[in-house]
Structure formats: C-alpha cells, structure tokens
Amino acid sequence: MQKQVYTKKDIVRRTSYKFERYTKDELKVVLDCFLNVVKDMFIEDKDRIHLEIRNFGTFDIIPTKIRKNARNPRTKEKVVIQPRKKITFKPSKIIKKYIYKSRLVD
Predict the structure, then answer these.
(1) How far apart are CA 12 and CA 30, in angstroms?
(2) Residues 103 and 83 sit within 8 Å (Cβ to Cβ)
(3) Contact predicate 82/65, CB 8 Å
(4) Where are the domains of the chain?
(5) Which of 28, 57, 88, 91 is 20 to 30 A distant from 74 in Cα terms?
(6) How many CA atoms lie within 13 A of 50 on its CB side?
(7) Cβ neighbourhood burial of 30 (10 Å; 0-12, 13-18, 19+)
(8) Exposed, middle or buried, 12 (CB in 10 Å: 0-12/13-18/19+)?
(9) Which pairing describes strands 78-81 and 67-71: parallel, antiparallel, or unpaired?
(10) 26-30, long-range: CB < 8 A, 24+ apart
C-alpha cells in the first residue's frame, strides 16, 4: 500500500471548500499564523508543555534524562546520551474512533 502525503497546500484547499467566503490566500495566512503560534508554544523555555486541541488531540513535550549506560549497537561502545526534549501526540477519542473503527467491536 502506498502512503498518501498531504501538504499545507492540501489543507488550505480543503479548508477553502468548507469556507467559500474566504480565499485560499486568506486561509493560507490563517494556517501559517496558527502553525507559527503552535511552533512558538513548543519552543518555549519550559520543562513540560501540554498543548490540547479539543476533538483533535494533545501534544506533550517531555524532557528526557541523561542516559549514561547506553551502547552503540554496532561497536558495543558505551555512549552518553544527553538530556533532550521529546514530543508525543495522543489523538482524541473522536480521531481514535475513525482510525481504529475496523478494530472496534460493537
């Protein structure tokens, strides 16, 4: 099965069908502004960040600890992995319902 790739252009095009009174250029500005605000929230200098978008899902940015006992699988050499931030996404119940509908038993 081949994967389907969507871009910002596709989001703007589909949104323009729903909002006929706005042009694609206006909707592109709105989408860019929204994505910039979300990006700015993600790169804030805070330890933990939780972004919740109702009926879509939640994003969490969680700091990881330093790992001193890691090994390079190829050379078996010990390496130290520095602390970093990790992003996770948890879809909402509505999204899960559509994604996993074939697995759900009524």
Answers:
(1) 9
(2) no
(3) no
(4) 1-43, 45-106
(5) 88
(6) 3
(7) middle
(8) buried
(9) antiparallel
(10) none
- Torsions phi, psi for 63 (to 5 deg): -75, 140
Prediction pTM value = 0.76
| Mean residue pLDDT across the chain | 91
Query: For the domain bounded by 45-106, which CATH number is listed?
Result: 4.10.520.10
Residue 67, class by beta-carbon neighbours within 10 Å (0-12 exposed, 13-18 middle, 19+ buried)?
Answer: exposed
- pLDDT band for 7, please (50, 70, 90 cuts): very high
24-48 per-position pLDDT tens digit: 999 999 999 999 999 999 999 888 9
Sheet holding 85-91, edge to edge: 49-53, 57-63, 85-91
The closest alpha carbon to 83, from 60, 50, 61, belongs to 61
d(CA 43, CA 11): 24
